[in-house]
Amino acid sequence: NAGVTQTPKFQVLKTGQSMTLQCAQDMNHEYMSWYRQDPGMGLRLIHYSVGAGITDQGEVPNGYNVSRSTTEDFPLRLLSAAPSQTSVYFCASRSRVRGQGEKLFFGSGTQLSVL
Amino acid sequence: KQEVTQIPAALSVPEGENLVLNCSFTDSAIYNLQWFRQDPGKGLTSLLLIQSSQREQTSGRLNASLDKSSGRSTLYIAASQPGDSATYLCAVRQGYKAAGNKLTFGGGTRVLVKP
C-alpha cells in the first residue's frame, strides 16, 4: 500500500520557470490538500480539494494552481516560480469518514529551490 | 484567528524517561486535534487524533489528552527510546467545513532521546 506518493523529491528552478508537483494517493480519499513548510512559519495550506472536480484556495494560494480530474491525483502547478516559493511542499489526504477516518496522511515531500 | 503554540521548541531526555509534550491553542471551538511525528527529511505521520468530544486517546506507549476549555493538549510518551527522537507537531481543525478544512499547526517540539 503506497499511501500518498509525491514526485519529484527535489527540484531546482530558475525564477520565472513553471513546473508541476505530482501527488497521487491509492486510499480512495476524497479530501486532498497541499501544504508548504517553511522555517519559522510552520505548515500552511495552499489549496485543497474535497473531491474530483472540486478545488478551493487555502491561506497562501497566490502563484499556485491545482486541478482534480480524478480521485487519485492532485497536481500542484507553479505558474512562474519566484524565490519566495522556495520551500518544502507536502501533499496530504484523508477520507471524509467522521472520527478516526479523518486522520491526515502525508506524502514524503518535495524540496523546491528557486534561484 | 486560531494560533497553536508548542513549548518548548526542543527537548532532550535520557532513554527510559517519560516524555511530556505540550500544545496550546487560542480558540477552544475546535473540531479535532491531531498529533504528528516528523522525521528529518520526511513527511508527517499522524500519531493520534482526538475528537472535540473526547478527553484522551491512547495508542501503545502514546497517550494524548485534550482540555478544550483551557485550550491545551498534552502528548505523553512512556519509557522513551532513541527511536522516539523526532519532531512532534500538533494541529487543530476548526470545524467540519470551516475554513476549508484547514489544520492550524504548531511550530513543533524537537525531541532527542539519548541512549
Describe the model.
The complex is a heterodimer of chains A (115) and B (115). Chain A has strands at 4-7, 10-13, 19-25, 31-38, 42-51, 54-57, 64-66, 76-78, 87-94, 105-106, 110-114. The model of chain A has no long low-confidence stretch (mean pLDDT 93). Chain A is mostly beta strands and 115 residues long. In chain A, 0% of the residues lie in helices and 50% in strands. Chain A is globular, with a radius of gyration of 14 Å. Chain B is mainly beta. Helix content of chain B is 0%, strand content 54%. Chain B contains no helices and 11 strands. Chain B has strands at 4-5, 10-14, 19-25, 32-38, 44-51, 56-59, 62-67, 72-77, 86-93, 103-105, 109-114. In chain B, strands 2, 4, 5, 9, 10 and 11 form a 6-stranded mixed beta sheet that branches. Chain B is globular, with a radius of gyration of 14 Å. Chain B starts with a strand and ends with a strand. The interface between A and B is medium-sized, with 26 and 23 residues.
